Amino acid sequence: MPRPLEPVSQGTRVVLGISFFVLFVAAWAVATLGGFVSKTFLADPITMVQDGWLLLTRFGFLSDIGITVWRVVGGFVLAALFAVPIGVMMGAYKPIEAFLEPFVSFARYLPASAFVPLLILWAGIGEMQKLLVIFIGSFFQIILMVAVAVGNTRRDLVEAAYTLGSSDTGVVKRVLIPANAPDIAEILRLVLGWAWTYVIVAELIGSSSGIGHMIIDSQALLATGQMIFGIIVIGIIGLISDFLFKALNRVLFPWRLA
Amino acid sequence: MTRTILKVDTVSRVFPGVRGGAPVRALEPTNLTVAENDFITILGPSGCGKSTLLRIVAGLDRPSAGRVLLNDREIKGPGADRGMVFQSYTLFPWLTIAENIAYGLREKGLPKAQRSEIVASYTEKVGLRGFENHYPKQLSGGMQQRTAIARALANDPAILLLDEPFGALDNQTRSLMQELLLGIWERERKTVLFVTHDIEESIFLASRVIVMTARPGRIKADIPVDLPHPRHYRMKTSPEFSSLKAQLTEEIRAEALQAEAH
User: Is residue B10 part of a domain?
Assistant: First the structure.
């Protein structure tokens, strides 16, 4: 047995990580192909792959994936563009924090999915409505988390900057922002993951395209293979975006790893 | 008599009580005059308000009463005319060693060519050539503090403030750092205010040792150190050094005992 906190080698890490996926699929295959679970409720892995292939080649599922990715990225980038500066200002300037923090803390708990019916009333069932669901879901979360990160900047670094002649805006621009840039990137990575759950909710209701729409359509046909394929595709895209984010952080913030 | 550069005029500091407790008198009304090119060490037991005094001079803390004058101008906040080196490692972790040293120069808006010239000269002076493109994390504690000294000096401040800068270093490194700092002072004749609780360090570096009492802090003794320059580490075993050390040990011991009794 390894001892607590003892590190493992990179090779072992990869093997262990993959083996759980294998174990998971194996358990699934035994449950379905072994006849323990009715096909009506859960498709077996082979059917799932066949259904998935059909979706991709015959039913234009790729464009559904594309439209969903665009919605997530669009709504998320829009939210980040506004939320990060507001969060930085809130963390840096306490009066702004006192002014906005109570409202943002309240707004953060408003479930984005509950806004879907209201947003359909306001913005119809077009792209705007989908983007808004994701925007509402991400915007307040990013503000609050960025504000907390910036507010926790090491005081001694700020003091050092002042003794080196930094002005107040100099401290914000050249200490608070660069010191917290990796944390902000990490916050964005986390919230992007949540944005994926909002987009599917937005697509389940009043939508004619996207992964969520495909899943709802498949439900009507009892095509559990297609539904599971859709869910797995979301998982894989999440994994890829996570990987890209981490790789980008390594390039942007080499000092963190130094 | 040389020109007065810094004047601490009946400065005191009272911290408000926490949760209805009694206010804490950290610093009794204190007067101190610093002449240009002085190397003053402020020696005292921990919690004697010596760091508070230094932070007030730096402008990072406000006095409850009194004022501090630098070149006859009252200090209202921190500024580039007072360089500071902290006990904790305060290099900016996202900047390389060269960028850290250049930080103040960039804030001043110096052109790049001039910046890199000054940075090169200070990297040389603190013996960090070849480490310009390293990040602080990759350097030992002693090297980080050397960079911090270079960063403060590159700004060409009127006075250099050091708050137990070698406190976290091991004995051998500390002793090397003392010689390095003293060497720079002997060459450049900066005015230095150096806070420490290490008696030997306070004598070796100083032209004047200020001894402070236990809380509430006030100046107990002002002892000139007339040991010749350049100083060498072997001086620490000379009879003159030892007698000064004995004298300061007595002064500090009385304070430490009093602090314990409280």
Answer: yes
Residue B153 lies in a domain: no
Select from A165, A181, A255 the Cβ nearest to the Cβ of B107: A165
Q: CB neighbours of B159 closer than 8 A, spacing ≥ 6?
A: B5, B6, B34, B57, B70, B81, B82, B83, B190, B191, B192, B193
How far is B211 from chain A, CA to nearest CA, in Å? 25
- The kind and range of the H/E element at B229 are none
Helix axes A61-92, A94-108, angle to 10 degrees: 140
Q: What is the pTM of this model?
A: 0.87
3-state secondary structure (DSSP) of residue A58: coil
Task: Note down the domain range covering B35.
Answer: 1-77+192-262
Query: Above 60 in pLDDT, residue B1?
Result: no
**Beta-strand relationship, B219-224 and B65-70:** unpaired
The predicted model gives A146-150 an average pLDDT of 96
Question: What is the rounded distance in angstroms from the CA atom of residue A248 to the CA atom of residue A251?
Answer: 5
Give the highest mean pLDDT range of A133-147, B3-17, B219-233.
Answer: A133-147
Mutate which of B51, B84, B90 to test chain A, going by most A C-beta atoms within 10 A?
B90
ipTM for the predicted complex: 0.91
Domains of chain A with bracketed CATH: 42-257 (1.10.3720.10)
Tally the domains of chain B: 1
